[in-house]
Amino acid sequence: MEKENLHAGTLLIILAGCFWGSMGIFVRRLGTFGFTSIQIVAIRVTLAALVFCVLMLIKDRSGCGISVRDIPLYLGLGFGSILFFTVCYFTAIRLMPLSTAAILLYTSPIWIMLMSMLFFHEKMNRKKLGALALAFAGCVLVSGISGEGIPLRGLLVGLGSGIGYGLYSILGTVALRKYSPYTVTAYTFLFAAVGACLICDPMDLMRKCAAAPDHAALFLLCCMTALVTAVVPFLAYTIGLRTVEASRAGILATIEPMVAALIGILVFSEQLTVLSGLGILMILAAVILLNSHCTDN
After folding, report:
1. 150 in Cβ contact with 100 (< 8 Å)
2. pLDDT of 112 strictly over 80
3. Structure pTM?
């Protein structure tokens, strides 16, 4: 039964990565309405928070309350992870090529592995190191290799996005020891939504919504963005963290850039280069390596 739960958790982590990989479709479409990156983040996390709260009321009404002592934990999840990594990532995109920003974001498995060793005393072995090397190299190839210089500020915020992204696995694992996945995701996104609304220029956001030519289409797009890029993947990832080590989950989630690359080819007619193809194969190899004999430490 334990092994079956581990396999189910692995599949949920991979599913989450696949859904996150579709984010580009929704972000690009919302961008046509004139929303800034931070405003898109605010739309995404606010609607996701509402859905997570409804799910919590349906699935785990007893988990509606959290201990006052755990508020710092959820501040870390909402502000320190979800909001921080997203703001850092979009800032990095403005300061450097998208491919370089993506490479820095996907340093997250490295930070997860280091933090897991420090806080959870997870064991390191050759399989994890090999999978990590394959996954990171694959992300570099899929994202593309930029020869342009990286400003110091861009480097710092890029690395910050990877740390913030990885922090969800660490703090989420801690929160799951006491709360259900529904409570964890609901309060995480509630805190993230509050923070996002404070920095997104809400008056300008409402003006853009009012000026949209088709309000029904915009509302549907916003709801789909929240469901596909936040609700489904974060719930799947959080449930998966109950049975999958944080370091293993971080590497499995690197399937996201591979999916994003495939969507770029199929939806946006982007070309598949030899290096991108090799990167996709390397990410797949990392997932297969990590999942083989998955009960090993």
Report:
1. yes
2. yes
3. 0.80
